[in-house]
Amino acid sequence: MPSWNIHIAHAERLLKGGGSVARAVRDGNAFLFGNLIPDIYVGYMVPGVVRPVPYRVTHFAKPEHIPKPRAGEFFDAYVRPLARECGLLDALGDDCATGGGVGAPGFASGASGFVGADSDRAPVGPTGSAAAGDPALERSWRAPASLAAEVAHVSPAHTPTFEWDFDVAETAACQRDAFATSRRALSRDELRRSLFDMVLGTWVHLLADCTWNQAVSDLIDARGEQPSRDFRIKKQGDFDLFGKSLELDLMPRLTPQLIEVAAAFPQYEIDAASVSATCAIAHETVRTNHPVTGAAYRLLDEEFFSRVFAEVNARAEREMEYAGTR
């Protein structure tokens, strides 16, 4: 139900918020990409999917009019095992099992639960990469791309006085060289750590879908209505308007490392072409997301969207802190 601009906004605000989710993430690029994964092979967002995967599989949901992804089940199957394998949990007992519920207990930044990664996390900010001279520069593949940084980089080329000092016939070779230069094999520990961030992002996507869909279901019940084609059209139109109202800057950046991590996604491998297409679509989603004011909602309203959007991120932060309070 939420479109990619909404999912990207959730991920961006969590990364920049400095809360329990941000403290858990070292590879922001993998985390942001993970927030889009459940929709890749469904076939609606990414073109060229040869064999679409059913929504009930990608989203851990029962087939119904307004499906509720079982985020907790995904957490237990993929996030928790990787956290343990990466040494990110001190002791997370069976009493913290999610049982396939809506949410999932996660990590705390204190003495118990999640062991923070602040010391080696690539920065996430307006530049979208590590600052020059920063020791984290060599780890900049972990940072998402930034629209603001991209605009600052390309805008001078569109001024009347811009001059270039290279042969335009070599442009493609320059692009290939830049990609190849950043290529290096990840160590097993690096791969597993980035994979944890990716599945954590996927969990946030499922948690968001479940929270939004449950809120819509509750609204239908309160109004005594039944799901219908007219309801679906108005509802999705309202979601599109709300998504356009959000300020966006971050987007997943296509890197050799992201391709390598996506290929190791534990639920199913994600091929390189689909990773590239997903990054391109996310880029256009962010680039063309010009916020609108005074949206004329037909079914929902501003209070609904503000409340549920805040609830999704608060829930993600709360679930990540849960283990530390047991």
Overview of this structure, please?
The protein has helices at 4-17, 20-24, 28-34, 37-40, 55-58, 71-85, 147-154, 171-181, 188-223, 229-244, 256-263, 272-287, 302-321; strands at residues 145-146, 250-251. With 326 residues, it is an all-alpha fold. The protein has one domain (4-325). It has a two-stranded antiparallel ribbon. α6 (71-85) packs antiparallel against α9 (188-223), α9 crosses α11 (256-263) and α9 (188-223) packs across α13. It starts with a helix and ends in a 5-residue tail after the last helix.
Topology:
Blueprint: H1 4-17, H2 20-24, H3 28-34, H4 37-40, H5 55-58, H6 71-85, E1 145-146, H7 147-154, H8 171-181, H9 188-223, H10 229-244, E2 250-251, H11 256-263, H12 272-287, H13 302-321
Protein name: Phospholipase C/D domain-containing protein
Organism: Collinsella intestinalis
Keywords:
326 residues; mainly alpha; two-stranded antiparallel ribbon; 13 helices; Phospholipase C/D domain-containing protein
Q: Radius of gyration, rounded?
A: 20 Å
Give the low-confidence spans: 91-119, 126-139
Q: Count helical runs.
A: 13
Large-scale geometry:
globular
Instruction: Please provide the count of β strands.
Output: 2
Helical content stands at: 40-55%
* Proportion in β-strands: under 5%
Distance between the termini: 33 Å
Q: Which structural class do the helices and strands define?
A: mainly alpha
Could you give a short account of the major beta sheet? Answer: 2 strands, antiparallel
What is the number of domains?
Answer: 1
Mean pLDDT: 83
Spatial sequence of strands, sheet with the most strands:
1-2
The topology string of helices and strands comes to HHHHHHEHHHHEHHH
